[in-house]
Each structure stands twice: as structure tokens, then as C-alpha cells.
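Running co-folding for adenosine-5'-triphosphate.
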Amino acid sequence: MGKINVKTTAKLGHKLAKNSTLIGVLVVVLIGCLINGRVFLSIDNIANVGRQATIRGLLACGISLTIICGTIDLSISTLFPLCGLVCLYFSNYSVVLAFAMPLLVAGTIGTLNGLLITKGKLHPWIVTIAVQLGLNGVNLMLTQGNTYKPSNMSSALKSFGNFSVLKTIDIELICFVVLYVIMSRLVKSKPAFRSMYAVGASEESAVMMGVNVNKTKMLAHILCSLFAGITGILQVSSSGAGKVTSGSGYEMYAIAACVLGGIHLAGGRGKIIGAFWGAWILAFLNNIFNMQQYVNPIWYQVVVGLLVIIVVFAQALSNKMHAGFKKETTRI
Amino acid sequence: MHADGYLLEMDHIKKSFPGVKALDDVQLKVKPGEIHALMGENGAGKSTLIKILTGVYKASAGVIKIEGKEVNINNVQQAQQAGISAVFQELNMIPYLSVAENIFLGTYPINSGKNIMWKKMEKEAQALLDDIGLDIEAGAQLGTLGTATQQMVSIARAVSRNCKILVLDEPTSSLDSNEVQQLFKIMRRLKNKNIGIIFISHRLNEVYEICENVTVLRDGKYIGSWRISEIGNEELVTSMVGRKVENEKTVRGKTTFDEDYLLEVKDLACFPKVKKVTFGVHKGEILGLTGLLGSGRSETAQLIFGCNLLQNGKIVYKGKEIQKQTPRKAISMGMAFCTENRREEGIIPDMSIRDNIVLSSLKRLSKKGVVRNKERDEVVKRYIDRLKIKTPSEEKRIRLLSGGNQQKVILARWLATEPDLIILDEPTRGIDVGAKQEIEKLVREFVKQGISIIYISSEISELVRNCDRVVVLSDGCATGELVGDEISEDNILAMIAAGSASKGGENVAEKN
Amino acid sequence: MWQKKIDIVKIARKYGAVIFFFLLFLFNCVTTTNFIRINTIQNLFIQSFPILLISFGMTLVIATANIDISVGSGMALAAMIFALTISAGLHPVLAFLITLIVGGFFGWICGVLVAKYDIQSMIVTMAMMYILRGIAKGMYGGSTVMFKNDFLSTLSYYRIGDVIPVHVVIMLIIFAILWFVVEKTRYGTYVEAVGNNPKAAGISGVSVSGILISVYVISALLAVIAGVEQGIMVMQADSSNIGLTKEFDAIAATVVGGTPMSGGKANLTGALFAALLLQLINMMVNMNNIYYALAYIIKAILIIAAVLINTYIGQK
Amino acid sequence: TLVNAETSEDAPKETFKVGFAENTYTGDWRACEVADIEEKAKEYGYELVMTNADLDIEKQIGDVEDLIAQDCDLIVIVPVDAEAIAPAFEACKEAGIPVIDMDTEYTSGVFGEDFITTIRSDQYEQGKAAGKWVVDTYGTEDSVTVLEITGTMGQSDAQNRHNGFADYVADYDNVEVITQSGDWSATTAQNVVQNVAQTSEFDVVYSHGGDMIPGIILGLKQAGLKPTEDVGVITVDSPFQVLDSIKDGETTAAITCTPRGGDTLFSCIDSYRTGEELEETYLVPMNTITSDNVDEVYDSEGY
Ligand SMILES: Nc1ncnc2c1ncn2[C@@H]1O[C@H](COP(=O)(O)OP(=O)(O)OP(=O)(O)O)[C@@H](O)[C@H]1O
Ligand SMILES: Nc1ncnc2c1ncn2[C@@H]1O[C@H](COP(=O)(O)OP(=O)(O)OP(=O)(O)O)[C@@H](O)[C@H]1O
Ligand SMILES: [Mg+2]
Ligand SMILES: [Mg+2]
């Protein structure tokens, strides 16, 4: 009798801890309900939060690939506004160009990053910090710092940006979910993607096991940049205006989403879908803050920072418990 | 079939690293269906030669022919395509992935849509594991398995390839005798399929048991090749070491001891691996600790040294019970612990040999935190000489040393702390004959100076040669003890067998 | 002969940032008008002071294979606390001590979370980045704090022998202490060991969590000094802008300086010159009136060039 | 025509809930505005919910959505960006919630459809006024070099102040401008002044913000230049520290506008609720302060 009990609790603990992301989501939802349950759990609000999670969430999807692969791309925070600008600029001419050109630009930058990191053997942090700076310069040069609004924006692009299902689920949210599903599938089923885990865990071992490390890293970087491209397109197609500074600090958000989703920064560990939930957690935290009226908004950053710490702390404790349970179960 | 009938010919191979000529005009020739031993001291260049063959390194000069045709091997993929498959000396697997994935990484089974067939992969992997007698699930995460099991998995991986040449670089160093036999069975089977096997090991008996031919390297130079039946034990050792080595003989120390223990452990427990371990170590004795793989020897040592938290029992050292043991405390009290897992728990890979040696004794070698360089360098020099660590300079990063030399550096680290009690967990793993004898000699010397040793080893002959007493563990419990002349291979084996049998019975009872 | 060659390579690897700094310096001597002036040198040192300090801290943290992106916010909080305590009439020394204690406390928290609870340093320090910046902004309603103190304003512009700014002295003292600690004491070896293989280091008797906590505290304390200096220079503390994105400059300086992001090595000399290098680039931009947008691109190219040179000299 | 507000159909609620999507809470100007809005909301008896976008346009759009979800009766938006804010305005329109556009102009909005009125201080005009001051003071004949120290370029405030200035002086060939970024930071501004002073001579410094003034003045002094005497200093924005420095004769002039828009805002809301017609724009007055008129401003409201 007693044994069964221990076993079931252990199993539950095991489940929870294995999905530390789940812990994060649970914690956030709990806080949300405590603060303002009625509004918080409404469909509209959840859809809103989902939309708010999109931009960072898509960036996080790209960056999660690089992190799993043991590198990182910090340049996305200036790359995606650039792609937005490019998209708007070409939307004056044709909707096809409006989609193709930003992706081309993104692919080029991804290739550049990848080459500097694999062939140039430079550390990804420094390469992508530099590229981030450089692209910021490019953005400012192109727009002179002003917000860019196309004179003759393609209506197809506009209607793409304003598309929504049942007026609650709009295109961003759809892309957000669909792209994550696709990526998760690819990572699960394509050898080239799956190898990212090996490369991230140990480059040396991956080489010895016959994985083409450089190719894998290039793939991760190019995909990451393409995600930035898609994000840029989505952002400008709904607002119709491109802004240089619109991405500042987003690389950190994206990384945070990954970490909250259980993706380990040392590489080789975690699931892509974790970043998806991580982005939701972050969006929920913002939402929760706006729902409450006890704390002055000037303390926004403090509260969000504290909440992040609470979430990761809960995850860390659950991991510790997990280790404990593991011992228990094997003993029985 | 071509003229000479060789499957693999490596000729005039040269390779140098900054400061070292690792290989200088080396040759290696293997026929199909032959098991060929590659032997030499630590740092002789065996692994380097293998890495050249498998495309990890590129040779500075030389030719490689497979079935008489010259091949170009620039990377691992090309080597794989050429039919070469290898188990490397250092475990090179991905701990976070499943066993099945580790086996198939690089050659995932894919369907027509180029998607990985997970079910098929797992099934094949499971079949493979069952086939080589490994009782694990293919879906298990590799990192949760013990070193030995991981080693067997990497062998499974190498075997799973349809290769012409199989390279095994010290595959047996972390296996016990049962598993070694298991491996030999597989090797014989492959041999019958006309696969050429290159086998590296420092254990002479294994080489005599399984190999037909042997090639010896020394200091990166080719010394010669022999039929194993035509070369005697002594001659082989002499060719490897380059001088005559005396025969190993049993030197038993004392058989009677003081009543007092230096270290006494009572009912140690840390689930799941250690359940009830009780024994004591006298001053100045060598206590052997043995048992089957996974019987909890390493875990016991870890508990004594404070790497893991004690769940039950007590540790009494120098008459005082130790509360909340930590490695730092242990070191300050004069304990030392040379771990079995060199790469993960031993070396600091990117630090110099010097810093690796003094890491644990820096406290003693510094004054108010400031390191006294002269003293430190003396210590380093002393131990490099004493353990005959082969390196161009003490500044060299330890990662770049050969496996055996890394082990010596770790030993030096612990000897440098001038301990009263040294726990040696598989200290001679991957160490060449010469060095092994030196280490054994050193161990005995230390005992003469009054140091006590806990000697954990899977090589029973080693225990028989050196130990004053032997404690046998099985399934986390101390089940027997042998003293003095009782210590013989047969007795130890019998005791291990008895222990595991009784434990096995208990397990059955528990399950019901 | 062989031996000697290796040494040159080693020196180049270790001092790549130094070489690149002097190259750029020489380049400026030729191309920038009025560059060769004592004023320029003074300005260079004064202006790079904050980056220099946080780069030292970052170097230690990165050497343990972790990261601290909270330093920029730490600077802002320090400046605010210092300004407010001074405004409240406290003696500067006392105010500085209070600031150090508060800053060090937050560093300690980061260290504990990373060391004892095994939470990834990136997320811990990122949360801390938000928290510290948020407190800095919130504690004075988002406004700038002005303060007056004659002693401090004379101190900040004091030139020893009319030539050497106090900044240089303070910076050299801090550098000397840290350099000594890293190169000459066992602490340095421990830091590198923890960065390289924490498990092995722990078994070898290194107090891994102690080392981790200590590097975070040091990093936080250096950020405090940097932040306070920023406040004193203009006699005001502006919570939203002090130290903003400076953590990236510090990371860049650390890596350009030859400390690998993967940890296991601490190159303080490299960080020193790399930080000077980064500020030199800023000066070059200002002095030649380079278009601000172009300035970003130039900076990016020079950073990549510096690490490339670093890597390739090292590999030759 | 005005947007048909729900309040007119339903029975009037007891409290009228105003959502205020502020773009940032920091900087003296904003801090003053926030305090003013909070104070005036109480005075006028409105329930106020404020959010802080921290200058992040994406976050602001989310903030507005959150305000809608909380059933605000009217939402005030202080756009982080004049164009990219569009989705937020559209979301309000869809939810049938009236919007007041504040401070920054929502350029693609249509009066009466997207917002019921605009209350703003014009950053672009401020930049222009600064340009005008330079031309008025230094004439159109002798060549004048201006060192423009910008805020973080790409942000609306900095961008508008830059554009207004640049557009005005573009007509005068004798004015030459050196533009370097001070990133809104006093120390960066100080560094810029020092470094530029090493190589170039300039007659006047134009600062985008009052927060950078202390740094600029120290930088000038260090370069051996006397502010106002040798080099003129003009800034947009006039917190107390700037007024003090005008009094001390170190800052030459400041273009000001008051952040205290609370009265205007809530009286507009009052009128809206009673069904009065609102004008399209209520401009907050702009002023040039020099040593001549500094005392009046200082005493009256400080900003
Ligand atoms: N990457 C490297 N860089 C520099 N030197 C190296 C490198 N790899 C190996 N060496 C050196 O080359 C020599 C041969 O090493 P190798 O690993 O081949 O020896 P081994 O015969 O396999 O020894 P062991 O039996 O100990 O495994 C050693 O002196 C070693 O220090
Ligand atoms: N299930 C497991 N989970 C985590 N670590 C394990 C597990 N099994 C073994 N290990 C670790 O792997 C290392 C080697 O284990 P191995 O299977 O060789 O048995 P062992 O415990 O070393 O055997 P013995 O105790 O007989 O020496 C040990 O240090 C142990 O801590
Ligand atoms: Mg070897
Ligand atoms: Mg063991």
C-alpha cells in the first residue's frame, strides 16, 4: 500500500521535474489566477498573451536551435528590424519581393555568422555581438533613424498582416504555433537537425562520431536568421511601419524564453518546444503585471525580474527533488 | 584478392604536434580476419596512429592502403565510408542522448521521406544490445549508465557498422573479466566474418589470449611486428619498454596489524549503490577492495571522501568520527582520492601539467595565498621525474597528453598532498606495463613510509600481488574479507561469486 | 630554437589585444589631427574607466565559465544609492561603503543562486539585470538625482603632478591587485580550474561554490566602483542611462582580451587593453566626426578584426 | 463624428476607468508627467490604470491589449513610436474603446475615427525652435558650427528633435552641424564634447535633452572652453537642473514644454463624457527660456 503511494508521488514528481517548463507555466498561471483570475483566464486575454508572445517566441525558436547546437546568435535583435525594413521597402514593388528579400538578407547574415564561427573559428558571442552592432548601424543608415513607412505598401502584405481567424487568433499567433510544430518535427525526424544535439553536447565527440560539425552549425545559424526574417515580416505586416530600435534587448528575452523552457545554454540539452512555453511564460509575466494594481508600473522590471527568479528557482528545486526521487524509485 | 593479401597497410606514417614527434615513420599491416595487437608504452603514439586511420587527425606524411588501393582519409566520414569503424580510448559519446541514438548517430536509419525511423532504430539497437549481452534498455539516457556500460555501448556502436576494419583503442580498460570475455566473443565472431581488428591494450594476458600478430611502437617509432606465438612475454615487454624489466613478483607486506584502525567505516549507505559497507584500514597497509562491476566500490570511495552525502553509517578517521565529510575536509585531514573516471573527475583539461599536479597541494605550497613558485616547481619536477611522466614541458596542457600519462599526472597530484591515506580507484587503468610496475612499486614504498592505501581494482591479479588484505563487495554490501596467504585469485573469485549468488537470491525474495 | 618560437606564439596569443591596441593607436596618430596630445591620453583613460573595471569583473566570471550581464544595471543602482546617500548628507566615504555593501550583496545573491542551486548564470544575472535597473529607476521615481560635493568634484578632476588623472591611479591599483591575485595566488588557479572542470576541481579540494560566489561579488563590487565614478563625473545619477548595455562592451572586451567564453582562463592584461581599444574606437569616431550610424559598423568590423588577428596569431 | 462610446448606451457605471499606456516612466520629464497624471486623476475622480512600456513598442501594443481586457472605458496612449503603434489603436477601435493620443502624434490615425483628440507637445517643433534660436543668435552671415549631441538615435524623441533642427538649419548655408550620439547619457555626452573639442572648433552645442547638460558643461570646461561665453549651449527640455544652470549662466537657452498635461487631459475626458465636441489637437505651449525669463518660469512651474 505504502509502496504504491510512494511510487505514484514519485512518478508525478518525475513527470513534473522532467518538464521543468511545465513547472514554470504552472507557477505563472497560479500567480495570474491569484492576482486577477476572472480577467486572466478569459479567452481574449489568453489570445492576447499568445500574440504578445509571438515576436519573442519566434526569435526564441531560432535562437534555441543555435543554443542546442552549442553556439548562439545575439544579432537577431537588430537583424529582425532590418528584415522588417527590407520587407516594407520591397512591398512598394511586389508582395513576392516583400517576402523573399528579407529572407534573402536574413539568410546572408546567417551565413556570414556561420562562416565566421565555423571557418573563422571565432566565438559565437563575440561574432554576433559585433554583427548586432553593425546591423544597428546599417538600420540607422538606411532610415536615418526615422520610422519607415512605405508610400505604396502592397495590399496583399497588409491583408496578410491583418488576417485573423474568428477575430481572436491572428496571423502572428498562427505562424507562431505552426512554425514551432514544424521545427519540432524537423528536429525530431531529420538527421541533419538531430545532429545539433550531438554537436552541442560535445563538438569533439560529434566529430569522432562522424557528424559534420560545421555543416550542422551553419544550418543552425542560417535557420536562426531566417526566423529573425520571418519575425521581421510579421511585425511590419501588421503595423505597416518599420522601426530601427524595435528589437533592442530582444535577444536577451529570447534567450530567457529558451532557458525557462528548459534548454540548457551549455548546449545539447532541451527541446525546441520548451522555448515556445518559455515565451508564453514571459508574456504571461508581463500580462500579470498589467493586471495588478498594487505595484506602481515603475517597478515593472523589478517584479518581472523577481518572477523570473521565482520560476527558475522552482525549476531548480524540482530538479533537486527529481534527483531525490530517482534514488527512491530505484531503491524500491 | 591482391598480392600481399593485406586488408590494411599503413606505411611511413609521420605526425608531429608542437614540440613532439608523435609518429615517425610508422607502419601497420593487418590481414582480413586477423586480430592485430598494437602495443607500446604510454605516449608511444598508438592512439595517434588510430586517429590518423580514422580521419580525426591528418598525417604529415605516409600512405594508407585498404585492400591494396591507396585511400585518402581527410575526415571521419571518409574513414567511415572506407569501412573503418572505431572505439576510441576516451569515451566519445553524447551523455544526454539515448543509447540507441548514440549507437546510430551519424547513420540514422531513414525512410523514403528522409525521416529518422525511431521505432526501427530502437528495435535494432535493442537487438544489438541483447546480442552482445548488455542488459540495458535502448531508450535509456546514456549519461545515467556507468562507465563500463557506456564503454560497452560504444563497442556496440562500432560493431553495428558494416565495417571492414574495426579499431578498438583500449576497450577493456574499464571492463571486468566477464565483460572482457563477452567482448572477446564478439571479436571472434567478427574475425570469422573476415573483418580485420586492431586491438590496443596494456594487458598482456588479453593480447596473448585473443591476438595473432602484434606490432610494437616505442617513442613514436616502429619497433617491429611478430606473430604472437613467436614472441615471449619478456621479449615483448622489453621491445616495448626498450630495456629489461624484472619479473613481477608478489610482495606481501605484513599479515599482522595493530588493533587500531586509521580509517573505519561502519554500515555505510547511500542508496541505491551502497547499502551496508563495513571495514577498517590499518596504518601502513594496502587494503584491496574488489567485486563485480557496479558492486559499489567506487561509490564507497566517493562516500569516504565526501563526494556524496552519507545517508547512513559513520566514518571514523584517526579516532574521530567525521561529520559532513567534504573533499576539502578530507584533503586537509590527509586523505587522497584518485578517481576512476579520469576525464570527468580527474583532469582539468586546459590547465598545464604543472597546475594539474599542484592543484590539491596549493594550500601547502603557498604562503598567505601567494604561491611559492620555486617550491611548487620543485614539487612538480620531482613528481614528473618520479612517475616518469612523458612530456616536453610541464607547461603542456594535460589534455594533449596520452591517456596513461594523464593518469600519472593525477596520481602525482595526490601524492603531492603527502597524504596518510590514499584511495586509489582503478589506478592502473590504461597504464602501460612498465609504468604499472612503477606505480605498484611506488604504492609499496608509500606503505613502507606508513601511508595506508585503499586499492580498488577490477584486475584481481593486481590485488593478489599487492594487497595485505582484500575486502569483497557485492551489490553494495561488504560480504567477505581475505587476509595474507588466503589472498589468491581463486579465493577472491569464489567469494565474489558467492556474494553475488546470495544477493541474487535476496533480490528474488524481495521482488516476491 | 624550437622552444623560442613557441614562446613568441604564446606571447602573441596572450597579448593579441595589446598588439591590436597599439596598431590602432598608431593608425590614429597618423590619421587623426591633434591625436598625439597628453589630453587625448588622459581622456582615453578617464573615459574607459568604467568599462575597464567591469571588464575585469567579467573576465573573472567568464573564467569560471559563467557570465554576469547584471553589471550595467549594477552600475546604475550604485550611482543612485551613492547619489541619494550623498544628498542625504552622508560623508562620501561612508556613502561609498554603503553602496559597496548593497552592490556586493546583490552579487552575492547571484553567486549563491548560480553556485548552490545550479541555476544557469545567464538567466540569474539577466533577472538581476532587470531587478537592479528596476530598483534604480523606482527608488527615485525615475528622475535624475543631482548632488553636490566639493571634495568629490575636485577629486574627479584632480591630476597628479598636473598630468596623471586619479582614474589612472585607481585603475592601476585595482588592476595590480587583481592581476596579482590571479597570477600569483592560488585563487587564480582555482578560478581557472573551476571554469575548466568544476567536478574535478571539487574533488581536488577546491571550494567550487566559494569561488563562484566570490567572482560574482568581485564583479558586483567593481560595477559599484564604475557606477559611482559615472555619478561623480557629472555629479548626477541618471538611473535609466548609466551603464546601459555596458555588459556587452565588457563581454566584448573580455573576449577580445583573450579570455575564452568557455572559461578556464583569465586574461586580465588582455581585458585591460581590449577595454582601452573599445574606447579608442569611440574616440576615433568622435574626433573624426564619423557619421554615428557608420560608427556602429566600424566598431563591429574592428571588433571582429581584433579577434581574428588574436586567433590567427595564436594559431600560427 | 465621435466614436460611439459604450457608456452612452449602457447605464452609466459608477466609476469611469481610464487606461493610460505610458511609453516610459523614466527621465525627469516623464517622471513629472506620470506624477501629474496620477494627481490629476484623483482630483477629477477617475479610476486610473497605468502601464509602462519601457520604450518597447511591442510591449506597448501588448499593454494596450491588456488594458482593453481590463474593460477600460477610455484609453490614453503615449506612443513609443508614431507609426508602429498602429495595431494598438486598431485593437481599441475594434473593441469600441475611445482613445486619446498623447505627446507623440499617431501619424496614420484619423481624427474622430482612431482617436477622439490629440494632446501633445511637439518634439519636431522643439527641434525647429532650437534651430531658429541658433540662426537668430548667430546670424545668417558668419559661419557657425553646431555640435549636436543626440539622444539614442532611432528613438522618436531624439529623432524628432534631430529632424526639426536639421530641417530648419538646412536653409542656412552658414550653419554647419557636427552630429554625434550622446545616448541620453551625461557621461557619454561629456566624452563626446571632450573628444570633439580635441579636433574641431564649434560655436554652439545643441543637446537633445536636459539630462545630458551637466556632462556637456563639464566637458566644455575640461576642454578649456567657457560655456555660454566661448560656446553657446542650447537644449531641448528644461528640468530644474537646466533652469539652475541657466541661472548660473552656463546654459544659454532651453526650449521647453511642460509635461503637466493632466489638467488638459482630464478636462477633455470630462467634456467627452458630457458629449461636447473636442478639437483635433490641443498643443501644449512651447517656450524658449534664457537668462532673461528664467526667473518667471522657475517660480511659476519649474518646467
Ligand atoms: N593533440 C595533441 N597535441 C599535442 N600533442 C599530442 C596530441 N595528441 C597526442 N599528443 C602527444 O603525442 C604522443 C603520443 O600520444 P598517444 O595518445 O598516441 O599515445 P598512446 O600510445 O595512445 O598512449 P596511451 O597508451 O597512454 O594511450 C604523446 O606524447 C602525446 O603527448
Ligand atoms: N545509474 C547511475 N546514475 C548515475 N551515475 C551512475 C550510475 N551508475 C553508475 N554511475 C556512476 O558511474 C561511475 C562508474 O560506474 P560503474 O558502472 O563503473 O560502476 P562502479 O560503481 O564504478 O562500480 P564499482 O562500484 O564496482 O567500482 C560511478 O562513479 C558512478 O557514480
Ligand atoms: Mg592511447
Ligand atoms: Mg568503479
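Result summary
Chain B is about 35% helix and 25% strand.
The first helix of chain B runs from residue 46 to 53.
Job closed.
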